[in-house]
Amino acid sequence: MYWGLAAGSGNPSEAAIFDPVTGFGGNGSATSTVPYTQCVLNGLLTALRPQYWNTERIPHCLTRVFARSSPIDMLGAEYSREVVAEVSAETDYDSFRHRLESGPHAAIHEAIGGRDPKPVGWGDLNPSSSPNESLFFLHHTDVDRLWWLWQERSPKTRIDAYNGHRIDGNDSAPASLDASSP
């Protein structure tokens, strides 16, 4: 199961996934300006109580801080069908990975987890605590799906395509298929 984020990019906060009865609930409490208290007040996750925030034990309600931008809320323009199609049209792995990671992938974290830590802080889909939020897993399943679709467009060259660096202690050698495990 995945959350096809591009489908609802025109009006993300109204997407079925945020339905207050049958979905994962909507934005966190708009009345709170205290970090960790922008609680999701409806939907299937109202009783969820994550225990950690970043690396600290800070029991709290599930929080969301929807990013608002004009004219489209929740940064929807950054993961629209058109943007996803442009990302998917990249022909080499590094370009594809970079555009997907810094574009649609990051936009969802910011759209639900908050873009600016002031004045109300971050929701649980922020980069450090995102596994607190169930939508994290549905979102990352879609990222994996998009990668698989990209690979399937040219499997002979894309299945084994990757790059980057191995980080073993202070060594940052280029990654390769021949590299041994640390």
Note the overall shape.
Answer: globular
Instruction: Kindly state the percentage of residues in helix.
Output: 25-40%
Q: In which order are the strands of the major sheet placed?
A: 1-2
Low-confidence stretches: none
Give, in order, the helices and strands: EEHHHH
CATH superfamily: Di-copper center containing domain from catechol oxidase
- CATH top level class name: Mainly Alpha
CATH topology: di-copper center containing domain from catechol oxidase
Report the sheet with the most strands, covering strand number, pairing sense and barrel closure: 2 strands, antiparallel
Total count of domains: 1
Kindly, what is the distance between the CA atoms of the first and last residues, rounded to a whole number of angstroms? 33 Å
CATH architecture group name: Orthogonal Bundle
Structure classification: mainly alpha
Percent strand equals under 5%
Figure out the total of helices. Answer: 4
Arithmetic mean of pLDDT = 85
Total strand count, please?
2
InterPro entries: Di-copper_centre_dom_sf, Tyrosinase/Hemocyanin, Tyrosinase_Cu-bd
Protein name: Tyrosinase copper-binding domain-containing protein
GO molecular function, one term: metal ion binding
Keywords: Copper, Metal-binding
